[in-house]
Amino acid sequence: MFVSVPDEKLELVKSLLSDLSRSGGIEILYDERSKNFIVDPKNQNPYQALKTVSVINALGLGVPVSDAFKLIGEEYILDVIDLKQLSHDKAVMSRIKGRIIGEGGKTKRIIQEYTGVTIVVSDHHVALIGTYEQIPIAKKALELILKGKEHSTVYRYLDKAEEELVRYRSSLRREKLGLT
């Protein structure tokens, strides 16, 4: 598998290659000519190679190292929203990112606190790292913002989604304990 990152993230990813190889049990090489990382599962679990590719992609998007390495685990996934699909106009792109981040980072912080998802806004992408349960909630909140909904509407959605998630987790616990 081949993966590339922006030039400004190359040294960071290169410095983490041994940690990535060790944690994923795979081989990672860097091809100077093509500027691609080559992720080889060495006839091991190809799923781990895919998880490692996700870590490298996350690092390339500006996700902090500690959050990117969560992707090695089973519970965490990376989801990316490509803002270029919404507009190529710089002014529109700036407004979109401003709505996602909010005044003083408030909107982004609230979505992260409600969902437990790490959100990183870069030039043309929004990277989300969270669990399979959390990502859809955070992504829908961001989509509501991108559709121009009022922030208060998004916060109400997050309240309801959090309540539903708590009920769902509670029912799973009861089911495991045989209380249903």
UniProtKB/TrEMBL annotation:
Keyword rRNA processing: no
InterPro entries attached to this UniProt entry: KH_dom, KH_dom_type_1_sf, KH_domain_protein_archaea, KH_PNO1_2nd
Keyword list, A-Z: RNA-binding
Location of the K Homology domain: 84-147
Tree of life domain: Archaea
One Pfam entry name: KH_PNO1_2nd
The keyword Hydrolase is assigned to this record: no
Gene3D superfamilies, per the entry: K Homology domain, type 1
GO molecular function: RNA binding
NCBIfam families in the cross-refs: arCOG04150, PRK13763.1-1
Protein name in the entry: RNA-processing protein
Species this protein is from: Metallosphaera cuprina (strain Ar-4)
